[in-house]
Design goal:
There is one protein chain. The chain is mainly beta. It has one domain (2-85): OB fold (Dihydrolipoamide Acetyltransferase, E2P) (Beta Barrel). 9% of the residues lie in helices and 46% in strands. The protein is built from one helix and eight strands; from the N terminus they run ββββββββα. The protein has a four-stranded antiparallel sheet. The mean pLDDT is 91.
Length: 87
């Protein structure tokens, strides 16, 4: 299982904002697929998946939080998927 975090994307060290999820809850993702939009210093960035699996979202759009905050997980196999997504 891979944690989905608000990543550091440059020299900015302050809080960032989760703007929008681009994958539905429980949706299947592949490496490189866009997961969500975040904003730091008034710049929106599209963040991509680092693995294949199914997304479980743990945060709502509008969340302002420090870089490194966990906002979801990606289940990488059927057992993990059942545990986090309920399917």
């Amino acid at each position: 299982m891979l944690e989905v975090i608000l990543p550091k994307t440059g020299i900015y060290e302050g809080d960032v904002t989760l703007i929008e999820w681009l994958v539905p809850e429980g949706g299947e993702v592949s490496i490189g697929d866009p997961l969500f939009l975040m904003e730091s210093e008034k710049i929106e960035m599209e963040i991509e998946s680092d693995t294949d699996g199914w997304l479980h979202r743990e945060a709502e759009p509008g969340l302002e939080a420090p870089i490194g905050t966990r906002i979801g997980v990606i289940a990488e196999n059927a057992t993990e998927r059942a545990a986090v997504c309920g399917t």
